[in-house]
Amino acid sequence: MTQPAFGRRQAMTLAAGAGLAAVARDAQAQAVTLSAWTGYPELVPFYNAAGEAYAKLNPGFKLTVFSTSLREHEQKLAAAMPTGTGPDLFDVGQILSINLIEAGLIPANPPAVDAQLKASYRPASVDQFSISGKSYGLPMLFSTPVLFWNRAMFKEAGLPGAPETFGEMMDYAKKLVRFDSTGKMTRSGMSLRLSGQGSGITEKWRFVLEPAGGSVIKRHPSGKYSQNYDNAAGRAALQYYIDAVQVHKVDDPRVQRDAAAFVAGNTGMLFREAWVIGEIQKQNPSLDFDVAQIPAWTAGQPKKTLLQHNGLYVSGKSRNQAAAFAFMQFLTNPENSAMLTQTSGWVAARKDVDWTGLVSRIPQYKGFVAPPADMQYYLEPVLGPWNEIQTRIADQLPAAFVDPTLNGNPTKVGETIKRWAAQTDALLKEAGLFGTA
Amino acid sequence: MTAARRFLTKRRVLLFCYIALAPVLALFLYVRVIPIGFGVWLSFHKWNLLSPAKPFVGLLNYQLLMEDENFHLALWNTTLYSFSTVILSTAIALPLAVFLARRSRLSAFYQTIYFLPVITPMVPVSIAWKWIYDYNYGILNYGLGLLGIKSVAWLSDPDTALWALVIMGVWKVLGYNMVLFLVGIRNIPAMYLEAASLDGANAWQRFWRVTFPLLRPILLYVLVTSTINAYNVFTQVYVMTLGSQAAPGQAVRMLVFDIYTNGFQFFRFGYAAAEAVTLTLIVLGLTVIQFSLARNDPTREK
User: For chain A, how many structural domains are there in total?
Assistant: First the structure.
């Protein structure tokens, strides 16, 4: 009797070997290391926690997180993405993402991610993340400014509650501001963005401009844009700042400013986003404060605020795109969205997050996660030159706020606004986006 | 040795020199000449970092630069900053060096003190100065207050912000200039000064007629390097305009900062390159002027 070429033992050995090879292959397929970059250092604990949770569900998964300041993050992305040396996954504002999308460096969402966007986010978010019928990335967090007001100072000044109009806000600020015996301001009535450089100055000016009825640019039916602040609203918004600094002296570029001033109890009112609550919890938990909607320009007019998204995107040059998209979906599920807000202070963008626990613990979050139904939002235009448009206006604003020749001189205020507006239109023209019809 | 042999030996020496220099020259070519050449080439293109299309636009970037208000402002601010910093730092460093050139027990100590800012990295120094200049909590205003002088909004006032940077710039570079002058003074042969003394020259005459003319090469070096460094001011501008508690950007807008903004914020690398080339030409022109003014003129040395 001759022995068969393959005995049972050999066959079993081969089968076991093939099985092991398949397991090893699967394990290799699952062993993926993703790199994530963020411009918000306060999000690093969130990324790490989500990465660890995901690794438990997907053995072999590893996440490395790199974080720098927001501006550096944007610059690093801009330099690294075209050369393929960027991360697999990153978060960034739409001020930059639109440039990356236009350059073909961010791929359109696969069907599963597209479906998640359409099912789990508000229409405004879906619209912001869609271009020419395709969606790109997922909204990660919202940035909606509100009015922070110091309850203790209001009580001390005999003020009933948050102002309803910008006129009231100025009147309240006059009662809140404090000076020392030499006339030096020791506490501002309201803290406006009056100094520094960069697009943030214009972004904050828009908090006044938009309720006044203007906007930096306006979209026309043709899909083209033109400036929309060389008008009564633009002049009024600039005048409001000039009045605050030069006429009523309720704010001063020399005193402590912005969130630092509010957290330290050195200003009565401030327009800012939810992350300030996190700062207060960390640095001055006994601060007696509340949040309210940004006032209406005049009584009866709508209350408006900016709805700004920070998105999560997968790099078009990532070698792990499928894994990155899958992890992006995990990062933005309802549980992780709640964790994002709890760990960082930023409000997650999903509409189906259960905020009950957070609001019962920190009631001030209600103003962000459950805003009043009549709140009107204006959006960040998703345009290539938007950053430059805002920055160019921001270059001019700080000097104008303190320019004594603009005080009581509406003609010069009008001329100043006209000059800036012409520059805005010029930038739109250069980008082929200008039109008035 | 025959002429042919001498010629061969000379050629071998030359060949050896070229071979020995080759690695350094290659490195210089790679890290200096090629990037500069690429920068010049970029300046003739509409080169957006993220856009795949990078068309040749000839001199358009230069033309737009000439019409750009920010560029004009940055050029004016940088020139004002540079001239002020160079003149003040030189004018203070020279007498300091003369004073410290005298052998004394504390001379080394003072030299170290004045040189410390030079070796301190710019970012922490800028942050420290931002606090020194703070209107409410700054030590400078505290000191002025003790003298009965009202607080000054050094950074947030557009009229003083640039001068605040000049003060910091002078403080930073003073020690470097002083050490260079000190080396120059100590290298002047003592017999020249002794001879002048024997001829009845007083201290001022010895300085003005002997020391200062002999320091001319050092002075030229100080002026050239200080001017180049001053025109390249960036870090302190970036740090001091960062955040809401900062100087108004336009008040301290400088050329390198403007280049950085156009390049890394607006991704207009072609335009930023045109600005960088213009800055190079300006600094080059100033250096040539300084050389021609400060070079030794034998016809005057009679």
Answer: 2
ipTM above 0.85, yes or no: no
Q: Per the structure block, which two tokens stand in for A357?
A: 């626990």
The number of folded domains in chain B is 1
How many A×B Cβ pairs under 8 Å? 95
Provide the residue range defining the domain that includes A176.
Answer: 146-307+377-430
- Over range B28-45, report the average pLDDT: 95
DSSP letter at B44 equals T
Residues belonging to chain B with any Cβ–Cβ distance to chain A shorter than 8 Å: 49-52, 70, 135-136, 150-151, 153, 156-158, 241-251, 253, 261, 264-267
pLDDT at A345 over 90: no
Contacts of A260 in chain B (CB under 8 A): 244-245
pLDDT at B1: 60
- Give the number of other Cβ atoms within 10 Å of residue B33's Cβ: 11
Query: Does A258 contact chain B (CB < 8 Å)?
Result: yes
Contacts of A394 in chain B (CB under 8 A): 249
Q: Assess whether A190 and A80 both reside in one domain.
A: no
- In this structure, are residues A351 and A120 in contact, taking their beta carbons and an 8 Å threshold? yes
Report yes or no on whether pTM surpasses 0.90.
no
pLDDT per residue as tens digits for the range A92-120: 988 889 889 988 999 999 999 999 999 99
We report the CATH number of the domain holding residue B197 as 1.10.3720.10
Residues on chain B touching A195 (C-beta within 8 angstroms): 156, 244-248
The CATH number of the domain where A128 resides is what? 3.40.190.10
Please give the structure tokens belonging to residue A157. Answer: 């000044």
User: What is the rounded distance in angstroms from the CA atom of residue B227 to the CA atom of residue B81?
Assistant: 10
